[in-house]
Amino acid sequence: MSTQVLMPALSPTMTEGKLSKWLKAKGDAVKAGDILAEIETDKATMEVEAVDEGVLEQILVPEGTENVAVNTPIAVLRGEDEAEGAAPAPATAPKPAVKAEAPKAEAPKAEAKAPAPAKPAAVPQAAEPEYSGPTATQTVREALRDAMAEEMRRDDKVFLMGEEVAEYQGAYKVSQGLLEEFGPTRVIDTPITEHGFAGLGVGAAFSGLKPIVEFMTFNFSMQAIDQIVNSAAKTNYMSGGQMGSPIVFRGPNGAASRVAAQHSQCYASWYAHIPGLKVVAPWSAADAKGLLKSAIRDPNPVIFLENEMLYGQSFEVPQDKDWIVPIGKAKVVRPGNQVTITAFSRMVGVALEAAELLAKEGIDAEVIDLRTIRPLDTATIVASVKKTNRLVSVEEGWPFAGIGSEMAAVMMEQAFDYLDAPVARVAGVDVPMPYAANLEKLALPQAAQIAEAAKQVCYR
Amino acid sequence: MAKAATKPVAKSAAQPAKIPSEDLIRHYRDMLLIRRFEEKAGQLYGMGLIGGFCHLYIGQEAVVVGMQAAAEEGDTVITSYRDHGHMLACGMDPKGVMAELTGRAGGYSKGKGGSMHMFSAEKKFYGGHGIVGAQVPLGTGLGFAHKYKKDGKVAMVYLGDGAVNQGQVYEAFNMAALWKLPVVYVIENNKYAMGTSVQRSAAGTKLCDRGLAYGIPGEQVDGMDVAAVRAAAAKALGRARDGEGPTILEMMTYRYRGHSMSDPAKYRTKEEVAKMRQEHDPIDRLRERLLAEKHIDENGLKNMDREVKDLISQATEFAQASPEPDPAELYTDVLIDLETVRA
């Protein structure tokens, strides 16, 4: 059977080119891989290789021809088993077939006409179970440690790796006692090599293990962000659902105290931007424990943002090893009627202080602990705003493209008719974190500022 | 493709192991399948049926075929974006690979990954990664998992001569050596990182020595000779399986085509390419050996050509007949549903 050799496209944008030279003549035998001709575009000279074997029966476009359109037949190749002079087989309609299917030129038009696929409705989140069992007073640090220990007892695929997590017992003592209980194969001190061990953890997760990767602080996760975003978050999608990354990246996030610009920033907005990641940022010790257990059990990559300033704070914590807090559920930590204040991590405590200040002035604020940043529990926030008609969003991170920006957009889209005032954002000041004590304090949201913002949206 | 039936015995490169006749024939067929597949992919790209970036493996076939020849069932493979050959060598179906190239529902990633991002959990092929060097820590993690699970398997981690200048590669080398992970790093040195030659990008061009500071032994191998690759692979895989840690194999190879389809290849001469093809082509060399040593005759080779050609035709037809992914697929596989996992 004869086949037509078509003018090839050598880049996604090429539409035509010059057939500058034939390297085979009529009657020449051709093997797959042989160079048939040279073609030129405005950018380059390229070679056309034969894909099939046979004899070059006809040259349809002589050398030197300019502006040969892509997919024009340029030669006919006779198959090896065929008699000479046999009529060239009708082109197996490559040109129209290609045109009909050409994805590049036609796709945008087709897309414009096709109805947009329906975005799946948000998956209803599992309700948070009521807990009535025994509790104990624990610090956030102890609660995190217990969460890891309980999950490591439950599933031997769970392991912890990071800098100083084993023999040093954790740079912030979060992994205290884990090496003793689980041994060095499951509690692993790494070299100072964030990019490397983050990637190693993701690879281990691809093959079914459940790594907990500790960053000494999330500031150092920027060394590893390619592995988090490009490898952990995207591979399940890129593999058509074959290969997930059940991994937790955890560690302290946000400003600590007097450690200045490179060690004080909030990554909530950075990671929340990425489809394929879940982002959790608890405030209380109970939520820290319940959410970390959920994160470890989750089949997806979870960014678990802790806060160094909270590690030593104590809360009542459920003591049942089967108790967890579902990811994706915000919590009303102080009910109120006149203004909604959302916050996460350490800012929840500051927001509660602000609510006390407001109460003294007769304003009844509702404080919501977001707990999970992505997927955001918009239902709980919208329900609150329908009641209060006002929203103040609080975060430690910078305002530009921050969580508050997202909150404002969600209110526009889902609660516009209920708003009695524009959404107010209280955020970290839009500068690198300074070292000096007075400047550092000025750079972070304070209770008085939050109260002031709340009064403004209440027109007081 | 079938893997070596028995655990290969480690032999020094100077004295290559005697390779059974049927293995040599199979290696020839496996290399031919990759060559023909890539030629067809190049053609489909020219017809506009494959989009974006498309990096062909033509010329380098002996590397992955020789490595897989020494591998065991359950060993894992990971590479960069020049990955079509690796997938075929891992036994993935040419239909599914070609349909992914054309962005169709029948592709290995349902059309959502494309040439550079393809995976098969079943065939232990872990991608297909588009960021130069990122597969090296990931593959080291596969090795870590083999050791953690004590399954006796080895991760084969492929990287190019360009990736060896990425910092994360050395972070991975350090941990692999420190923890004696069962990993074989296969540097496919095809002499050019896109358009920059090794001489112009590497201070110290003997890339197999890049692990010496970590105590990782390295060896340069004729990557255009499938028997040499197989012998070196057997030795390195054996070391890893015996708990002695990683090895670096620097495969001296060559790609005949450009870095990607739209590469005018002005950084090297046509004579250089032609000389490699004429004097070192891995498929031609093995073909000559098969005939000279009478492992197979011309007729047998012709039948094999036909069989491979048919497979490629079927893959090509499938890749064009398979529909584009359903628009609803846009939203699937972003996150794994917790309920699905429980069920």
From TrEMBL, chain A:
Q: What is its EC number?
A: 1.2.4.1
The cross-references to CDD domains, in alphabetical order and at most eight, read:
lipoyl_domain, TPP_PYR_E1-PDHc-beta_like
Q: Which residues form the Lipoyl-binding domain?
A: 2-78
Question: Which reaction(s) does its UniProt entry say it catalyses?
Answer: N(6)-[(R)-lipoyl]-L-lysyl-[protein] + pyruvate + H(+) = N(6)-[(R)-S(8)-acetyldihydrolipoyl]-L-lysyl-[protein] + CO2
Q: Which UniProt keywords apply?
A: Lipoyl, Oxidoreductase, Pyruvate, Thiamine pyrophosphate
Which GO-annotated molecular functions does the record name? Answer: pyruvate dehydrogenase (acetyl-transferring) activity
Disordered: where is this region? 82-138
Domain of life the protein comes from: Bacteria
Organism equals Dongia sedimenti
Q: Where is the composition biased (Low complexity)?
A: 85-100, 113-130
The opening ranks of the lineage are: Bacteria, Pseudomonadati, Pseudomonadota, Alphaproteobacteria, Rhodospirillales
Pfam families per the UniProt record, alphabetical: Biotin_lipoyl, Transket_pyr, Transketolase_C
Bias type Basic and acidic residues, positions: 101-112
Q: Which SMART domains match?
A: Transket_pyr
Supply the InterPro entries for this chain: 2-oxoA_DH_lipoyl-BS, Biotin_lipoyl, PDHB_mito-type, Single_hybrid_motif, THDP-binding, Transketo_C/PFOR_II, Transketolase-like_Pyr-bd, Transketolase_C
Question: What is the protein name stated in its UniProt record?
Answer: Pyruvate dehydrogenase E1 component subunit beta
Query: What quaternary structure, including any partners, is listed in this protein's UniProt entry?
Result: Heterodimer of an alpha and a beta chain.
Entry cofactors: thiamine diphosphate; (R)-lipoate
Signal peptide location: none
Function according to Swiss-Prot or TrEMBL? The pyruvate dehydrogenase complex catalyzes the overall conversion of pyruvate to acetyl-CoA and CO2.
From TrEMBL, chain B:
Q: Which cofactor does it need?
A: thiamine diphosphate
Q: Which residues cross the membrane?
A: none
Q: What reaction gets catalysed by this protein? A: N(6)-[(R)-lipoyl]-L-lysyl-[protein] + pyruvate + H(+) = N(6)-[(R)-S(8)-acetyldihydrolipoyl]-L-lysyl-[protein] + CO2
EC number(s) on file: 1.2.4.1
Q: Which domain of life is it from?
A: Bacteria
Keyword list (alphabetical) reads:
Oxidoreductase, Pyruvate, Thiamine pyrophosphate
Please name the Pfam families in this protein's record.
E1_dh
- Residue ranges of every copy of the Dehydrogenase E1 component domain listed in the record: 30-327
Q: Which InterPro entries does its entry note?
A: DH_E1, PDH_E1_Alpha_Subunit, Pyrv_DH_E1_asu_subgrp-y, THDP-binding
Entry-linked PANTHER family: PYRUVATE DEHYDROGENASE E1 COMPONENT SUBUNIT ALPHA (PTHR11516:SF60), PYRUVATE DEHYDROGENASE E1 COMPONENT, ALPHA SUBUNIT BACTERIAL AND ORGANELLAR (PTHR11516)
* Subunit structure comment from the entry: Heterodimer of an alpha and a beta chain.
Q: What does this protein do?
A: The pyruvate dehydrogenase complex catalyzes the overall conversion of pyruvate to acetyl-CoA and CO(2). It contains multiple copies of three enzymatic components: pyruvate dehydrogenase (E1), dihydrolipoamide acetyltransferase (E2) and lipoamide dehydrogenase (E3).
Question: What is this protein's name?
Answer: Pyruvate dehydrogenase E1 component subunit alpha
Q: Which organism is it from?
A: Dongia sedimenti
